[in-house]
Inverse folding.
């Protein structure tokens, strides 16, 4: 995948996650068991109850969803709006042959919290935005199926190539535990462990260094980056949905890439733009590094 496509994928993910956070985070807060509040471990987000993860997984196991994933694999992630060199019959045959199956656990996906950025006392570093289930094809392709809770049901809202969400959660667990979370504006994955924010990918290492930073230092860092771009800010009221560059991790690729990335990520993942209730979106993206 080209660097331009990678940047577009990161931008779309940030924008979509903004709306999904509004859909799931209040539910996770309301349903969290006693003693699981964010204050139990400094900065830790409210965990998504196991029962909700099970229901989210059940939604992904629906035959109609797995059929969509099969077509996603058959199309190698190419959206339905773009034509393939194969016909509908060949696509259907390839979708069936892909035999998609779930692999690993359904995991909650946490993204940087606006309250934490603002410095709100007691705000967690991140909030649950959606859940993700890795699905594997017979030929080895992988996809991440995203679900959100809407009322009493869980709904699939996105299928993305690769398995970043599950892979980084597993990477965090294998490295000593903690909560994996994402700073979508720069496509960085971290783990919160023992009061420190540690990097899980290259973007995060560029952001906080190989050894990570304290939770307090990370709060100062993201406040510096996004504190003047939160909902209700002058930046927000002026309708500036983007157009800035994060110094710690400049966009790679062409000038057009940087423009597209900044135009949708500046405040989207902090709640300025919402896509809750959107239909299933099929996206390609890079895999874990």
């Amino acid at each position: 995948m080209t660097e331009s496509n990678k940047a577009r994928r990161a931008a779309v993910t940030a924008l979509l996650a903004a709306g999904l956070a509004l859909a799931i985070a209040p539910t996770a807060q309301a349903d969290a068991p006693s003693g699981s509040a964010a204050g139990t471990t400094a900065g830790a987000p409210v965990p998504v109850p196991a029962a909700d993860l099970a229901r989210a997984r059940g939604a992904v196991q629906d035959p109609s969803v797995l059929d969509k994933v099969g077509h996603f694999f058959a199309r190698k992630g190419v959206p339905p709006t773009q034509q393939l060199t194969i016909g509908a019959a060949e696509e259907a045959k390839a979708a069936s042959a892909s035999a998609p199956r779930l692999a690993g656990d359904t995991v909650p996906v946490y993204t940087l919290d606006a309250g934490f950025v603002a410095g709100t006392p007691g705000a967690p570093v991140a909030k649950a935005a959606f859940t993700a289930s890795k699905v594997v094809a017979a030929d080895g392709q992988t996809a991440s199926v995203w679900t959100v809770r809407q009322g009493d049901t869980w709904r699939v809202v996105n299928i993305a190539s690769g398995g970043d969400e599950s892979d980084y959660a597993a990477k965090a667990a294998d490295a000593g535990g903690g909560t994996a979370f994402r700073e979508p504006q720069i496509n960085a994955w971290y783990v919160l462990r023992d009061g420190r924010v540690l990097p899980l990918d290259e973007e995060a290492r560029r952001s906080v260094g190989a050894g990570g930073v304290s939770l307090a230092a990370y709060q100062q860092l993201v406040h510096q980056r996004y504190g003047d771009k939160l909902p209700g800010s002058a930046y927000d009221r002026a309708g500036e949905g983007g157009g800035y560059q994060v110094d710690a991790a400049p966009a790679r690729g062409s000038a057009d890439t940087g423009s597209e990335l900044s135009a949708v990520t500046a405040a989207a993942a902090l709640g300025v733009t919402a896509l809750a209730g959107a239909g299933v979106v099929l996206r390609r993206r890079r895999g874990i590094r």
